[in-house]
Amino acid sequence: MKRGFITFVNNHPTYRKLNDILIESVITLTDVDIEVNSINFDFCHSSKKVINKRINLKNEDYENICYAKTYSSLSTDFDVAVQLDSDMIVTRESIDLFDLIDPKENFVLGSIHPLDPNNQQNVMSEYDITSKSQPYIHATYLLTKNSKSFLREVYEMEQHLLRKGIRPHNYDETVLNCALWKHKKINCFVDCYDPFYKCFHSFTKEKLLYHGYKNPSKVKRTICHGCKDVNLAKSIYETILLEDSV
Q: Which of 54, 114, 149, 203 yields a CA-CA distance of 20 to 30 A from 40?
């Protein structure tokens, strides 16, 4: 069974540098490959653990870039995968995520969001979704080959919303959650494994509570999420490496 990480990145200098840190963390701290889907440019990496792919977008606006995440999941060759954003850094414990999902699973498992932004009404209305069947999850998730039918539905929803000019407030994250609620899923989530970088950098109960994490004991320091400052991201990664060597 082939396992690996998936990510995507456009040619913006900052995101490319952040993506380099993510890739380095995967190469150094895990034993699995990572597929890198580059948007409208050719990305090359010398490591054999990096699988280079390309996504061509006619319109490279932020919304389409976000939806390229779903497309990258659909194009993966992995049997079980963890979908990541380019502003993430993995730890050695991230390898444990692959054991959380049954390879026969037909949906995806997401990291529970500490605070539902509660701004999905325009998409819920479009699809006659009257209630949220489970907690709101982050837009990065665990998937299997069997998940692709569901993810294809998510992608079709994204394209439908584009055509109708309906803009989800949190783009792909909103659509993913609405799709799960549409199917009335109640168990497609796990404890938060990708805390906000300001919590990750100073992982204390007080920090977690300050940033809205109501159940600190349910937050795992597995993946650092959301740091868009390249120098700070490097510092966090170096701290992870130091902790790993102890």
A: 149
- Cα 229 to chain centroid, rounded: 18
The whole-number pLDDT of residue 10 equals: 97
List, in order, residues 6 or more apart from 179 with CB less than 8 Å away: 150, 153, 154, 157
Q: Across residues 168-193, what is the average pLDDT?
A: 97
pLDDT tens digits for range 62-99:
999 999 999 999 999 999 999 999 999 999 999 999 99
Number of residues in the chain? 246
The number of domains in the chain is 1
238 domain-assigned: no
Mean pLDDT of 177-196: 97
Position 122 in a domain: yes
Reported confidence tier of residue 244, pLDDT bands at 50, 70, 90: confident
| Cα gap 188→135, rounded to integer Å | 9
* Residue 157 token pair: 């929803």
The boundaries of the domain holding residue 11 are 3-191
Percentage of the chain lying above the pLDDT 90 cut = 95
Asked whether residue 206 is assigned to any structural domain, the reply reads: no
3-state secondary structure of 187: coil
Helix ranges (H only) for 183-229 are 197-200, 205-210
Residue type, 41: F
Look at residue 216 and tell me if it is in a domain.
no
The CATH number for 136's domain is: 3.90.550.10
C-alpha neighbours within 13 Å on the C-beta side of residue 132 = 15
